[in-house]
Recover the amino acids of this structure.
């Protein structure tokens, strides 16, 4: 009986191994398109940019190896530091108000109701608009005789040179980007709020906690993961901003809106310093990776559960 059982058991084991190998091959084939896409459109450009960052390349001849010269030049370049400062101000000025406003809007919109559902749909309209089209619309809004100055005139204020005043131009971009991304953040935060357990709020109400205390003691701690997710995508998106500065101000006036991606583009294609622009791209990538890791470290420290 023992021999018969062994003979019966071995084919089943071999069959199981064969099935696992077949499933592995099928999984590999299914993942192949994604792997090809990743290799061609992400890994290859990244490796090319990393190599070019150590070269002098003007788009005409062959890249000339210069080692760390581009990085040393970057450390002494006032234009780079100006663009880095503009990028930090632009990021802080757009990310913080966007998240605060999105949370303030999401709290009432998370409640059940047909009207709230309609409002959530309307909030997504700016988010789904192409950024180029959004920039063109806001260029019209910011024109000397445009709606923005018309509203100021009704309020009794004089016209503002939104895109040509070096003290206002960057904030004009911040207003546009905040309006553009606010709806997406509202939808994400609304989904997070709707997933919070009602029993916690019921217990807090029985203990005498009011709406304000419940918001700071329950809602914010439980919403930590969602808030940090929104923070990550907002910071990464803001530090990669290019189209608003390119279409609305061209980096001006006097470099007031010359964010780092625009400065990289102008060096790469305006002055044909592709190697130097690649070095800046590597620095920007390193900063984004570090910021993302720091934020995800905090993300692992708390939860919605």
């Amino acid at each position: 009986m023992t021999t018969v059982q062994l003979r019966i058991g071995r084919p089943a084991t071999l069959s199981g191994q064969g099935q696992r190998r077949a499933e592995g091959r099928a999984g590999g084939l299914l993942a192949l398109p994604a792997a090809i896409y990743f290799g061609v459109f992400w890994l290859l450009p990244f490796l090319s940019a990393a190599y070019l960052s150590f070269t002098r390349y003007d788009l005409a001849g062959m890249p000339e190896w210069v080692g760390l010269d581009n990085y040393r030049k970057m450390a002494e370049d006032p234009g780079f530091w100006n663009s880095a400062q503009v990028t930090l101000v632009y990021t802080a000025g757009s990310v913080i108000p966007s998240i605060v406003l999105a949370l303030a809007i999401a709290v009432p919109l998370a409640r059940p109701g047909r009207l709230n559902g309609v409002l959530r749909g309307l909030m997504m309209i700016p988010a789904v608009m192409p950024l180029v089209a959004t920039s063109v619309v806001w260029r019209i809004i910011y024109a000397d005789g445009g709606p923005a100055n018309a509203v100021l005139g009704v309020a009794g204020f004089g016209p503002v040179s939104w895109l040509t005043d070096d003290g206002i131009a960057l904030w004009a971009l911040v207003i546009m980007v905040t309006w553009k991304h606010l709806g997406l953040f509202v939808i994400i935060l609304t989904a997070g709020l709707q997933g919070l357990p009602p029993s916690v709020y019921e217990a807090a109400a029985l203990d005498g906690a009011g709406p304000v205390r419940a918001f700071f003691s329950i809602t914010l701690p439980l919403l930590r993961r969602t808030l940090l997710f929104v923070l990550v995508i907002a910071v990464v998106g803001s530090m990669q901003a290019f189209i608003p500065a390119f279409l609305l101000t061209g980096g001006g006036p006097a470099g007031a809106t010359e964010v780092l991606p625009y400065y990289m583009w102008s060096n790469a294609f305006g002055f044909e310093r592709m190697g130097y622009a690649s070095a800046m791209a590597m620095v920007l990538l390193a900063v984004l990776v570090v910021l993302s890791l720091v934020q995800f470290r905090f993300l692992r420290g708390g939860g919605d559960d």
The first strand starts at residue 55 and ends at 56. Residues 97 and 217 are 22 Å apart (CA to CA). The chain has 14 helices and two strands. The first helix runs from residue 2 to 52.
